[in-house]
Design goal:
By secondary structure, this protein is an all-alpha fold. It folds into two domains: 167 residues, no CATH class; 163 residues. It contains twelve helices and no strands. The two termini are 31 Å apart.
């Protein structure tokens, strides 16, 4: 088989795979989540095997413990979280007006220099109410569209019932799946593919597993810290900031803006409360920069923050939430392949020239 025929075959296979992924996007969520969970839990199963348990027993134990932990955490967090979210939506216009009133003396000189009319309290209340109404309208429209298609119900049932089953069988048969894939590799390129897969797995494990732990730790620090300093809706803001911390700089920025805005609306003239809220985020950033990221993620994964943000935006645009889940692993694999191709290019006559 010639090289051109091989390239044509793999190109067609990749195109078919992408088309199927796009067509089945609406029902892939529970399976993708199951694969991600299995990938995270496989090292735990391996350790239990080394302690003497069989693969099936280790998988059963890990799956049961993971499901119980997920149910327990969900039951503990969701009720107060939903209550705070509902109250935040209702009171958002009021808090926006209060926060803007605090900073209005600082922005009025700038508005005068730009020739803009001064903001009155009535204008602030009207604009805040209008923004809140638009946000609720957009959210309601999106939720209604999803519900009409039945995707929300399918994904919810899938996450509840299909994901644990997928996780169990993938964990139990992980070694068999890896062996089957290895047997299917083209023989003359098998060593190169194994090397690239090993590097990709190191990048994915180093970043995804590590970053997930960083997000969990930051979410806990922000949620507990903001709640302890007395910030209203501190649990919601802290969990949101931690959950989106996998996007470089975005999680901290969004969380800090939300928390400080809420603090400006709640605490003054007692400015100590605002200082405490800022201190929580400074402490979280210090922990992330000096302890969490260096210990859990490190700098060996070779994923630039700009590349990560581009991958997340591209994955979310093309495949929705499923695309966001697989964006960083695919970005890691592409990065490994690009570095390999660059290495081959530097060794070729195209780069070195015919004289070399």
């Amino acid at each position: 088989m010639t090289a051109s025929v091989r390239w044509r075959f793999w190109g067609i296979a990749a195109a078919v795979f992408l088309v199927l992924l796009w067509l089945l996007n609406d029902i892939l969520l529970p399976f993708v989540v199951g694969m991600v969970v299995a990938y995270f839990l496989d090292p735990v199963v391996v350790r239990l095997q080394r302690m003497g348990l069989s693969r099936t027993m280790a998988t059963t134990a890990v799956t049961i413990v993971a499901v119980l932990l997920a149910v327990g955490v969900t039951m503990a967090i969701l009720p107060p979280l939903f209550g705070q979210v509902q109250a935040l939506i209702v009171k958002a216009p009021e808090y926006v007006v209060k926060a803007v009133q605090r900073i209005q003396p600082l922005i009025e000189p700038l508005r005068e220099r730009l020739g803009l009319p001064p903001l009155t309290l009535h204008d602030l209340q009207a604009e805040a109410t209008q923004w809140a109404g638009k946000a609720l309208s957009v959210a309601g429209g999106v939720a209604g569209t999803i519900a009409q298609r039945g995707v929300a119900i399918i994904n919810l049932l899938g996450l509840l019932f299909i994901t644990p089953v997928v996780t169990f069988y993938l964990l139990r048969d992980w070694e068999k799946v890896v062996e089957a894939i290895d047997d299917a590799l083209p023989r003359d390129h098998a060593d190169t593919i194994r090397k690239l897969v090993h590097e990709s797995n190191a990048a994915i494990a180093g970043y995804v597993r590590g970053q997930a732990l960083v997000c969990l730790a930051l979410g806990s620090i922000y949620a507990i810290g903001l709640s302890l300093v007395g910030l209203q809706f501190g649990l919601v803001i802290g969990l949101v900031a931690g959950a989106i911390s996998f996007i470089p700089f975005v999680g901290t920025f969004v969380g800090a803006v939300m928390a400080l805005g809420m603090a400006l609306a709640q605490f003054p003239p007692d400015w100590i409360g605002v200082v405490k809220v800022a201190a929580v985020f400074l402490f979280g950033q210090a922990m992330e920069g000096n302890v969490l990221s260096p210990k859990l993620v490190g700098d060996r994964v070779g994923l630039h923050p700009v590349w990560i943000m581009f991958a997340l935006l591209a994955g979310g645009t093309l495949f929705g939430f499923v695309g966001i889940l697989v964006a960083v692993p695919i970005a890691a694999v592409i990065g490994v392949i690009v570095r390999h191709l660059l290495s081959r290019y530097r060794e070729s006559d195209i780069y070195r020239g015919t004289a070399a």
